[in-house]
Amino acid sequence: MKISREIKVAILVLSGIALFIYLFSYLKGEDIFTDTQTYYTEFDYNALSMSSPVTIRGNKVGKVEDIRYDFDTGKTIVDFSVNPKLKFSKNSTIRLYETGLMGGNALAIIRANDNEMAQSGDFIASEVQPGLITTLKNNFSGISTDLDSAIRSADTLMTSLNAMVIDENEGGLKNTIAELNETLKSFKALSNSIQDVIKTNDDKIASVLDNFDKTSKDLSALSQEIKDAGLGETVANLNKTLLSAQEMLSAIDNNEGTIGKLLNDDSLYNNLEAASKEMELLLLDIKLHPARYRRILSKKEIPYQAPTEEEKN
Predict the structure, then answer these.
(1) pTM
(2) Domain range summary for the chain, segments of one domain joined by +
(3) What kind of architecture, by CATH, is found in domain 34-129?
(4) Which of 25, 71, 228, 307 could form a disulfide with 30 if both were Cys (CB 3.0 to 4.6 A apart)?
(5) CA 196, CA 240: separation in Å to the nearest integer?
(6) pLDDT band at 123 (very low <50, low <70, confident <90, very high)
(7) CB 28 within 8 A of CB 50
C-alpha cells in the first residue's frame, strides 16, 4: 500500500506536535504518562512555585501542580500530586519548609498514625516551619541595630586609643612607653652588673655553697646523734616530771596533804602570830624585870605580873 505524500506530512506534523507537548510538559515537571493522585492544601501566603517538590522523610514523591488565590478566604490554594503507591492518612500535615539558602521551598508530608487513608481530591491541613532565611529576615532589624551599636562602640574605642597614642603631654602614652623603655634598659644594666658580680666572685660563691653543704651535713649528723642519744626519751621523762609536779601543786592548792593544809589553813598563821605576841611580851618582861629571872632557880616562886601600859611604852 502506497502512502501518499500528504499523509506522510500530516503524520510528521502530528508527531512533532505530540513531541512538543511532551517536552513542554517535561520541562514543567509533568509526566503525561504517569498516573498520579492529586490533593490540595492552603497557606496564608504563597512561598512556592510550580513543580516545587513534595517529599516524605526527605524523598521526593510528588510535586506542586497548581497555585491559585482564593478571593473569598484570602488563602493561597495549592494543588499537589503524589505517586499513587504512597498511602498516607488524611489527618497528616503538609509542612512548608525551606530546602536551603538557594534551594527555595518545598512541601513535606508529615504522616499521622491512623488508618483513615486519604483519597484523591482530599484537603490536607498545613503548617509552616520557620527556616534560617525567615528567622534572619524577622530578626534582621534587631541584628542590624545591635551591629550598628557595636560598630559605634568600636569606633569610639579606636578614637580614644588614637587620642592616647598621639597625646604629647607628660601623661601621654608615648611618654609612658619611653619611661618603660628606660626602665627596661636600667633593669638590663642591673642584670649585667649582677652577672659581672657573679662571674667575679664565682670562686667565693662556690666556697660558700660548699660550706653550706658541709654545714647541712654536720647538722644532719648532729640530729642523728641527738636521736641516737635518746633525746626523745629524756623529753618524755621530763614531761612526766612536769606532770607529777603539776599534780602535786594541784593537791597543795586543794588542801590535800600536810603542806597543803599548812599553806591554806589560817589557824596555823593565827597560832604563830599569837606565839610571836607572847614571845614579844616575854622578852619585854625580861627586859623590865631581869631580877625576877635571876631567881628563877630559887625555891621561892615569884608569881607573874603582866606589865602595865606605861612599862610597855
Answers:
(1) 0.37
(2) 1-33, 34-129
(3) Beta Barrel (2.40)
(4) 25
(5) 59
(6) very high
(7) yes
